[in-house]
Amino acid sequence: MTRLKKPSVTGTDWIPRLKKLLPSGVVSDAPITCREHAGDKWFAARAPEAVVRARTRGHVVKTLQFAHRHNIPVTTRGAGYGYVGGCVPVRGGIVLSVMGLNRILEINREDGVAVVEPGVITKELQEQVRARGLFYPPDPASHAHCSIGGNIATNAGGPHCLKYGVTKNYVLGLEVVLADGTVVRLGGRTHKNKTGFNLADLFIGSEGMLGVVTQATLRLIPHPQARACISASYPDMKKAAAGVQAILGGGFLPSALELADEFTLRAAREYLGSDHIPKGKAFLLVELDGSRRGLRAEGADLQRLIRKSGGFDLTEAHGERACEKLWDLRRQFSQSLKATGLKKLNEDIVVPRSRLVDLFAHAHTLQRKTGIPVACFGHAGDGNIHVNLMIRADDPAQVKLSDRALDALFRQVLAWGGAITGEHGIGLAKKPWWSLAADLPVRRLHTLIKKALDPKDLFNPGKFV
Predict the structure, then answer these.
(1) CA distances from 57 to 54, 60, 62, 74, 176 (A)
(2) pLDDT tens profile 84-116
(3) Which residues, including other chains, have CB under 8 Å from residue 216's CB and lie 6 or more apart?
């Protein structure tokens, strides 16, 4: 576990003053509230001295002005569904929760935009725009629980990135509160805008270290007419990865293209029952969308290609309900791994697609050398595979061994020209590998930007910059 530094603020005499500054109930230093805001889905945690549950932009502004004046660290928190300890308040101080800023302010069909606050849950936005015939594609696996603000902080993706892109491709404008409480509005509501530097992009993926997003203007697109899915089994991952290349090389651009390995399938069979899980040692799920007439013909062509590449036991589904049944299986993979009783270290690495076979082989080698089971599944279409080390958390020797396994995994991924994170961010979990993932000039550039926007290092301090 990452060793957390002591808070930079000593004492809590500032808390009564902060409570007096903001309306009743906004600030809490109750131990249970502070513990509830101590971490995310990773295992590191540290309780803050106080929690501000902001309900308006004004609450955010006043909190940051106060913190800036008194040199109090501020860690912004959304729904707490991150996987790298990104919202752990390492140095204590204030946790600024924006989950009370949860309004969908506008959905405009003519302009193709939605204006939302950061506490809006991703699935809620997707459902509301879908009811108007529109589509907001970014769909992290936790979309039923995670917030738009958190998606912006990590530049979240999901299965539909292959065709539609990630969060940054749908952010047109941001309202951001800076470290001293200054409010800036970046970008706008037009789908093209080349006025000055693209400053909004600085805050997308910044992991809460540069400012607090209080409003976002998001791009919406027309919802596809129809949807179809095809699932297939493969005898091994090598053939499944070759199938992925055959699909993309054949001129198809699926809306999603997902793979799962043998360990993942075995865990799912034990958790859900073998009758519910396809045969084979690898699983491929392909989703298509577009016109109703075109999908039938495209699906037939795709099935022939999949069979030719070694796929078998194909299942085709058309329409929302039938497709969701196939996706429910994919979504159960993570829960199936948790049901093994082992601790899942979820690593969202990315490799060039040509290295998919090499990645699965490397994962198998790590498993053989360390004795730690490794489960791989994820977004094969863009090379973003979730490599899960399944460890016994109560075994110190295995925990130590897992650190070495992760080091070997990340070093190999970087040697292939890949990235150590595609969706989750650096946070605390991947901080030890930051200097490997970014060379010195790049790290210095990060530091310059951080100092310019947060000269006192109060925003989410103790992380990778």
Answers:
(1) 8, 5, 9, 15, 9
(2) 999 999 999 999 999 999 999 999 999 999 999
(3) 115, 116, 117, 118, 148, 149, 152, 171, 173, 174, 175
